[in-house]
Design brief:
The chain has 15 helices and 29 strands.
């Protein structure tokens, strides 16, 4: 397991001037001087008097307060109003499929004069994730250095690559999800995460490469597909399973990033974007925020979901331009409490929102948000490639431990432990959106939790005698728990949790096992794949309101050999 600590970014040589005195601000100040000079001439006064008065009026507007000058604020507001008045309807070309020689297809989208393709980095579903304060410790990370290297490919040069990480800490905003979010606190624990790479090709910058591949539209498509295949192959060659997305999959990612809403519903305000019932708050990350090698800060912000977009494009002297935008989706327009180094994209919220979608780059000039780094430095960035699943407990060093216990990537889980342990696992799975049906020979011990949850569509309990009566109902649940009863019907899409007595070993073939000693201590051995780790599991007072009665339930007795 890798703990990366050396990531360096620096501002370009022109960054100071671009940030402190951007062109629109200088033009506004010059406009004040010119206007004062003109008025002096109209009034019959010497021009230099007007120039002095204009300078006296203009200079204070350049003084920075709270990060921006008065002139910058005025210029930003004027630009925002001007863009809103002339902004066209949100429109984009649909993607289309191009067949691949090896089978399957590559989805391609034209956006203006840019060609866009996408690659998805597949997650390692059995990875165990640990957390230190503000940091994620895992080996399943996105190889940013490799992606940056792929911007230059022999005779092909990609204009840019966006690494789009979309995730959430919990599911929805129900009471159980809020309790779980409070348990996470400042941990950058993202239960669900998808990572895609958006590749952009400028045909005009690759005329020779296109000509070698037949020229014309066919040559353009072949060039884009070759570049995309090279990226996917390089990722796979380094042990990161990568999939070239089809047109349908690109549309699916687009819909997910829009949180299921329609682009037609997008309404921009000065400090956020509203899409349907969602309010999206967009921020750019400065050098302080980008210097964090784990980039964990965005995932500590309370939100329904978060989108972190890292934009890479080639620079001179083997360096790479890097900029980052974070989007926090909430149910209100209230400001989001963000860490140090996050600056709101006020006046440019729509552009920042669109920058996280698989479309052309909406920013004509990224100079005020870009930094320089090297490919070697990017190798130190530990951006997780997958969600961490649910929080399980803390290891012997006090680090929080999480892993996926439910979901499409986990088919079988065995819990050899107390009822309280099992119910804690189920409660946290519910916080992550699981719909659970429990088949048990002790329904009376499960019913207090079911009543506390208060929704049989979320947690249903069936006694052992129910048998085939509930077999058909199991299809509507994503997690099936068998506590003291034999499995009768197994859904191909559900996670199966089997509960046995403390002190027993796991049955062969379980994807994940939680094994509690027979002395019923708080320590639990977590096994996932080839990794085993002891963790201590402790429920909070809020969780105990749901599962506290299970402490009074008698433990199962050993019915087969102990470990």
């Amino acid at each position: 397991m890798t703990d990366r600590t050396s990531f360096n970014v620096h501002a370009p040589d022109t960054f100071w001037a671009e940030r402190w005195l951007p062109t629109p601000v200088l033009l506004l100040a010059e406009g004040v001087v010119i206007a004062a000079t003109f008025i002096a001439g109209v009034l019959g006064q010497p021009w230099w008097i007007g120039a002095i008065i204009g300078a006296v009026l203009a200079i204070p507007t350049l003084v920075r307060s709270r990060g921006n000058s008065v002139a910058h604020r005025i210029s930003a507001r004027m630009g925002f109003i001007r863009r809103r008045m002339r902004r066209p309807e949100f429109w984009y070309e649909p993607p289309f499929d191009v067949p691949l020689a090896e089978g399957g297809s590559c989805g391609v989208r034209w956006d203006g004069d840019r060609l866009i393709t996408m690659v998805r980095i597949e997650a390692n579903p059995r990875a165990v994730t640990r957390f230190a304060p503000g940091r994620v410790i895992t080996d399943d990370v996105v190889p940013l250095d490799l992606i940056a290297e792929c911007l230059h490919q022999f005779d092909i040069e990609l204009e840019s690559a966006d690494i789009v990480s979309h995730g959430s800490r919990a599911y929805g905003n129900g009471n159980i999800a809020r309790i779980y979010s409070q348990i996470l606190g400042p941990l950058p624990a993202t239960a669900f995460r998808s990572v895609t790479v958006v590749l952009r090709l400028n045909p005009l910058a690759n005329a020779d490469a296109i000509e070698r591949r037949g020229g014309g539209p066919t040559g353009v498509l072949r060039t884009a597909i070759v570049a995309t295949r090279r990226v996917a192959n390089r990722l796979s060659g380094k042990g990161h399973a990568a999939t070239i997305l089809t047109a349908a999959e690109i549309n699916s990612v687009f819909t997910a990033l829009m949180e299921g809403t329609s682009p037609d519903d997008l309404v921009e305000s000065w400090d956020h974007v509203q899409v349907g019932s969602m309010h999206s708050h967009n921020y750019r990350l400065d050098q302080t925020a980008l210097s964090d090698p784990g980039l964990g800060a965005p995932w500590t912000v309370p939100s329904l979901s978060t989108v972190l977009t890292l934009h890479l494009r080639p620079a001179e002297n083997h360096e790479v331009h890097l900029s980052a935008l974070a989007r926090f989706n909430t149910l209100t327009a209230d400001p989001v409490p963000v860490p140090e180094g996050f600056h709101p994209c006020n006046g440019h919220q729509r552009d920042a929102y669109v920058a996280g979608l698989p479309l052309a780059d909406p920013f004509d000039d990224r100079a005020q948000m870009e930094y320089l780094t090297t490919r070697d430095s990017l190798a130190a960035v530990a951006l997780p490639a997958a969600g961490c699943g649910q929080l399980v407990g803390a290891d012997e060093e006090g680090r929080a431990v999480a892993l996926s216990l439910v979901g499409s990537s986990v088919r079988t889980v065995e819990i050899a432990g107390t009822l309280n342990l099992c119910q804690q696992v189920v409660l946290r799975a519910i916080a992550l959106g699981a719909r659970v049906m429990v088949s048990t020979d002790r329904p009376a011990d499960w019913m207090p939790m079911a009543h506390a949850v208060g929704d049989p569509r979320t947690l249903a309990v069936a006694g052992a005698a129910a048998g085939s009566q509930v077999a058909g109902q199991r299809q509507g649940y994503s997690v099936l728990v068998f506590d003291g009863v034999a499995q009768e019907s197994i859904s191909a899409e559900a996670t199966i949790i089997t509960v046995t007595a403390p002190g027993l070993d796991a049955q062969p073939g379980a994807d994940v096992a939680l094994l509690q000693d027979a002395d019923v201590g708080p320590w639990v051995m977590v096994r996932s794949g080839t990794e085993a780790s002891p963790v201590v599991m402790v429920a909070t007072d809020d969780e105990m309101r749901y599962i506290g009665s299970s402490l009074n339930a008698p433990d199962r007795q050993l019915s087969r050999h102990r470990r």
